[in-house]
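worker-03 picked up job from queue 'complexes'. Input manifest follows; three sequence lines, order preserved.
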Amino acid sequence: MKKITGWQAFVRLLNFEIRRFRWMLVGLMAITAVIQIGSLVTTLLTKLESRRQDRLSWNHGAQQDTEPQWTPFSFVDLVEQELLMEFTWPILIGVAVIGIYIFFIWYREWFGKDTFIYRLLMLPQPRFHIYMAKGCAIVLFTFSLVAFQIVLIPLEQWLFHIILPEEMRLPSDFSAAVRVHPVWEMLLPEAADQFVFSYGVGIISVMVAFTAILLERSFRGIGIVYGIVYAAVCAAAMLLPVGVLEMQNPDAWLYPGEILAVELTACAVVALVSLGFGYWLLNRKITV
Amino acid sequence: MIELIDVRKRYRLRQVLKGVSFTVRKGQITCLIGVNGSGKSTILKAIMRLVPIQEGQILIDGKGRSGADLYEKVAFIPDRLTMPPGMKLSDAIRFMQDYHRRWNEARSRELMAFFRLDASERIGNLSKGMAAKFNLVLGLAQETDYVLMDEPFAGIDMFSREQISKVFTSDLMEGRGVLLTTHEIGEMEPLLDRALFLRDGVIVRDIDCERLRDEMGKSVIDVMREVYAP
Amino acid sequence: MKTYGWTIGLCLFSAVVIVTFLTYSAFDRLPQYALVTAEGDDSAAARMELMGVTTVSGRYEVLALTTRGSVYDSEKSAYQKMIAEARPWIDYMPDIRKLQNDYRQFMRGKGDYRGLFQDDEWLVYVKTSRTKAAEKGIVVTFHVDMLDKTGKKKNRFDTTITLPSEPSLPYSFQNVDVMDVQRVGRELHVMTMQHDTCIVFVLDPDSGTLLRAHALDFAAFGDGSAIPVQIIGETRRSYPSEYVVIRLEEWPAITEGVTASNPEREYLAAYHYATGEIRPIEGMDRDRSEDTNSIYQMEDGTFSLINYNAHQAEFRSVRLDRGEVQSLVVQSQQFGAESIRSVKWNEGKLYLLLQGNETSAVILEAPGGKLLYRGVVKAEGSAEEAKRRLEKLQIYDLEIHA
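worker-03 finished. Artifact:
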């Protein structure tokens, strides 16, 4: 009889979840690449064609005395002025799909006549591995999409450089490109502590959502109410410290560093309570 | 031995199990009998921690059930296949192999051959009979001390039922404690060692089937008529 | 291993790309500028910060520039943005920052620094609250928190007084605001403004009672109709001061229902806490022309005025106990600059931000006028790069850090 360690079982479960979603992930990346690169290339070719037409009509006796001049622009200028929506849509699609999948990753186990949740709950490993594998899968999908976007930006800048002739373009760097797009700036914070904080809050939100789902799956009808109330209480716990304690208010009782400590503690408490509560629900209350 | 001691279970406001107590011993085939909705499946799921109970105890070989131990000792074959429809049979077997230490690969191949199942087929494409057989493969290829089965014959054609019945008399069941629920009492009766009659949320009769036949000249169906007569 | 390819691949891909991105961002520096010393001692400019904006790849970037280099807002960590700059004014108030460090518990919730007083023995905070009186009037409560620095004993008391209300004003406008707190002997003198009246309340911290109160009478100023509009206390709000300066405005009468848009005359009065004496301050009138900025300040018993426009800065100061006005006039040209952009006075020094072919900063002793420091803003890179970068840079103000 071979021995299967807890860690092995967790990795296998994680791998199982990853493989189930892999084509959807590839699809999201493909949509992002096609829409962003497609719109970039189309816009640049349109501008080149426009410039060619201007030159042609000047050569054939148009009314200007001097050769038409084009104001050069940078990749950053182009994104800011003409491509904001095109570059935003695929990101929003990705966010929406991952957002839906946070729920679907659980509910799919109960769908249909062949409810897979039986099989998962009867695995001879701690049930909490199911929770952790699904959570880690969501996090990995999110980071994969973020990483893909990071890789796309310099590729798009390179395309910009090879399509446009030198006299039409101005230089711009990677960081400027990230900062010009409000959604990129939000998804790709350049300060490491902001990155950790933003995605940390996101991860905690996933934990809260998972626990709310398990509440619903444990108590069914009334469980929906429990789940919504639980999520609302956690959201309040995480938002109230900075909302109520007033970082900028000189009359506030706590100093800014203390308010941050309260906020971080609240986030840690919400995370631990969600994990603990989820653990308890999976072990004691879940119903197939 | 699987022991249920005064187990109570409520679904919302309806008390389904009102103090169920019985045992399942190794080497015996025990049948849990009851009308539809009496709580038979609930008992099996409760043993497997798939539904919570409000009161009472369920012990496996004298100990409380912890996750890893329970699923190494007890295999559950529910009334449905419980694998994703897009999975191939070979993938489902690999899934079981990946997580269950007591998975017997050779036995799973034997059972697949016995039931004439094609490992490259997808779960969603199986007929009801083939799905029931594959369900048995997943449950019986585990070398567990106990096997719980929920309606193994439900909706199955006669020939598939015969094949499944042969499993009960094979050495696959040797030394194991089996607890099953079924409405096909007539077919299963010769194989049963004990019958438990569930009515109004409690076990009202616990019958040794051989003694029933030999000493009282009755069948399990006769007892059913007595217990469930309106 | 093949079956784990997706998991391993995604983990590696995400980790490598994101770590590379964060590392690149940490080391990717926007163009650096610095204030380079041309004359004088670096250390004189250690607390000076020039605020500006530049463009990088078509984007505006806000930065602060010192002798040590430049710091861009966008390069600050989240911690810096959230915490260190949550209450940014503290950076420019050294006494408040020190109080928050040394008396952390006492200073909680004490955000109106006009109510602070400290000396070697006492640390005091006074604030007011008000409610409507049963009959016409307002009930004002003084909430006093005291810390005896020597014995670390704390005391807290509230004392209440009913004041007549101003019938022409709605209740919500009838605040009694604490403008300054000083100590005279063992008494606390609290200077307040109620609408256009200055009232000094004298409290006994030992018994927690109000000893007396009097409204300041400015009848001697102008035709007697001048009203107080500004209280100028010690710049380091918590420090002791024997005086407080009140700026008064005299408005012309309303003619044909039309109010004038500017006051006719202004006066400055020095109030001496110990004696209650009100004395006019002469020779310190601000320049009220449109192109001139004026700043009043008081430090250590010296009341100062800066009048500056694009080409000239005039600094005047007077010791309130001695009454002699000293002045210093500087022109942008004497430092080779075209214009003066900003002027600040701090701890006896005058700081000027100058613009011309180069942006520069100058520190002078005031009122003496001795040049302590002159620095020029430079950019990193080759001569051509530096020139291009300097063209994109606009410095609009200077600040003196704590």
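worker-03 released lock.
The domain at 2-83+145-228 of chain B is CATH 3.40.50.300 (Rossmann fold).
The radius of gyration of chain B is 17 Å.
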